[in-house]
Write a structure and sequence with these properties.
The chain has 141 residues and is mainly α. The chain contains 7 helices and no strands. Helix content is 53%, strand content 0%.
């Protein structure tokens, strides 16, 4: 994909008057370099968010409670119905789903918070796996 963009940019630069060719080609090369850097950044981010979890075929919201979110996260002053820290009620399906990007745990606020974010120290491996699988499986009720 990046090579195709580069070729198209060079071709476009070549369709101008001869005196501007070198400037246009340099501009195209700079743009290509910027695109390549942003692509490699997003690739490394995606590869950094991998898992070795074995997910159930169709995990549901109840798998979060089974993994321990009700006893570890839904505590008084944390993520319960009465005290929704950061706006999250982990006991409420719609509230929890609002913190996800269904099908993509790596871009979901809930998963990143418990793996590399502020809640990383508060979640155990069972909770991380349950959240990952629930999101990857489509955040079903």
């Amino acid at each position: 994909m990046r090579i195709l963009v580069f070729v198209l940019l060079i071709l476009a630069a070549g369709c101008t008057e001869k005196k501007d060719d070198s400037k246009k080609q340099l501009a195209a090369l700079a743009l290509f370099s910027q695109i390549a850097r942003s692509s490699s950044t997003s690739t490394s981010t995606a590869s950094a968010c991998t898992s070795s979890f074995t997910c159930a075929t169709s995990p549901s919201f109840s798998t979060l409670a089974t993994a321990g979110t009700t006893t570890s996260c839904a505590l008084s002053g944390c993520h319960s119905t009465s005290s929704q820290g950061s706006g999250l009620d982990i006991l409420d399906y719609n509230s929890a789903k609002a913190f996800t990007n269904s099908g993509n745990p790596c871009s979901s606020r809930l998963y990143t918070a418990i793996t590399t974010g502020a809640m990383a120290g508060n979640a155990n491996s069972k909770i991380r796996e349950a959240v990952f699988c629930w999101i990857a499986g489509g955040t079903k009720p």
